[in-house]
Structure prediction request, 694 residues.
Amino acid sequence: MTPLAKNLAVSFTHQHVLPDQKEVFQLSELPSKTEAKDDLVTVAYLTLFFVLNCSISFFRTYNPLWKQTFFSTCLCSQQRLPLLFSFAFFTLALLFCSVTSAVASADYDCVSLKEGQSIYNLNGAVSYYEDHNSSLSLEEILKNRTLSWTSLPGDAPSFGFSSSAYWLKFEICAPQPEGERVVLEVAYPLLDSIHLYGVTDRTIVYKYHTGDNFIFSQRPENHRNFLFFLPNSQQEILSIYLRIQTDSAVQVPLQLYTSTGFFKKNQNMLFIQGGYFGIILAMILYNAILFCSLREWPYLFYILFTVSYFSFQGVLQGFFQQFIFDSIWWQNHALLLFGFSSILFANLFADSFLNLSNKNPFISRSLRWIGLLSALSAMLASTLPYAPMVKLMLALAIFSSLLIMSAGSKLWWIGHLPARIFTLAWSTLLISFILASLNKFGLLPRVFWTENIMQIGGVLEVILLSIALGERINEEKRQRILAEQSLTTSLEEMVQTRTSELNHALKQLKTANAILDKASLTDSLTQLANRRSFDKETKIEHKNATRGGYPLSLIMIDIDHFKRINDTHGHQVGDQVLQKVAKTLCSFATRSRDNVFRYGGEEFAIMLYNTSLPGAINVAEKIRSAIETSPLDLQDELDAITISAGVSVYDPKEANTLLCDMDELIRQADSHLYRAKTNGRNRVEASDVSPPES
Prediction:
């Protein structure tokens, strides 16, 4: 049995005498279970409202059956207002919950351990003193009656980043519930040093020293937060003093329970945290499988970002200290390492996913520089002061999120479909970063929403980013899938109605197959017939020429130094060159039975109907001259584009058809093409392929 379980099971009893008569104010219990459930229901409704409005906006934007263009969708207030209202309402609700939770306080002298209660409210019962020099001991605190203690309005004091030592105190009065132990929880696992003292009649009856500067196994209880089982205060007032000092944000969320109350609360919290980490792990595994299948960089950067953010939250919530590592070094530096890593991989992911190097070079360079600074900060995290590094991490995170949001919003506006979901995903993370930063700097109170906002925003963000990655893959297939769905739906309806409608559906299917078959014979870049079409058409034309007794000419063309164009100017410029050359070739093969093909790579073929060798050479020379002298009107400056060509002719009137088949015609043209390239390029080579008469 673990120490925690033993302490939950064992009843601790101790008798004291009340030294002084004091006025006792009985504190009301924390919000009842019904009120807590109402809070959870409110949270659920807010989240559902937010997600539902996002979903409606996505559907109306992406559904092609909704007869609106993207531009009109963006400008239409009916599309935009629900989404903006959701964000505004969601954010204001969080702030409202935080503020209302923070201002609810009272002014009490001590905490009454009322029988039948399981959770005790410390609002108004805690006061603090700031030891600027961090030099006072408990004995000096007890002796010095002139110290000015300040009452805290809530049970989750937050002092921001400070090098001072903070003393907190509250008093417990009335007998402890029978058969129960009182548990004090400090629910912030990043505090470096915690000294807790139980004092009765100025006598220390209980003390314990713990914190993030102690290995986890030395904590009083095996729990991710700091737990203290307080001594029994039968018929007497027990004063609790805590001395807190840390390099991180000084936040001391205090909560007092009975052992039964803590067990119930801990079970509920483990359920919530388990759901959060389960969602994150599922997203990591799902996208890891996709990355292994697709081998695309955005998936790898997304996985690394999610793992880093998952680890960051694991450290922030204390789970990594409890289950992963039991090391003071890791406890002191893991948060910074995973935080800066999250910023680095988030920037790389955004840059890769949105292709910012081409679409927005300035933001792309900015994100890379911030990523480099984050990588250096992660490496120097163990040597530099903790507090400035945390502030730097929060500043870089917010600045990066703003840059990514601006880039995503711009691409959203110009019609980049995956950028819509990406921008929404990043906006949730940005809101969570801002609220969390305000909380860490002490500008927002430490309550449920502000403490868990990064997890809430993180879950929405990783889910939406995963959806955005899927949208990125499906963008090219969307129209085809919608056409198939429309056809399938039509078929199902037709089967249920009339036989005539079934015939109509079959006719539609035949038309669709014809379109797909035509697409399979066309090169998507140049819109010329492809190699498959070349193999099919040349055999047909060869047979027709044999039957008709007319010559058939073949010109094989290759762009000179095309690899150098790709290497120097990039594949996009290379694609433009291919398109321009294809257009020029088509302008010279204008007869109905003349055909132009993209043979492969930068190589083209022209089949000229009823054309002799001199005519084919003349056409090839005109094409060569036109390409050499015509401007290409490309964005990048290029040297003159030239081609090499090889010409061969099949004439059934002069050739022995048994010896001159189509393969031989192609081989001869290809041989002349390579001879032209060997002889200096930018030339036409040809010879009569007909064999000598026997």
Observations:
- The longest helix spans residues 259-294.
- The radius of gyration is 38 Å.
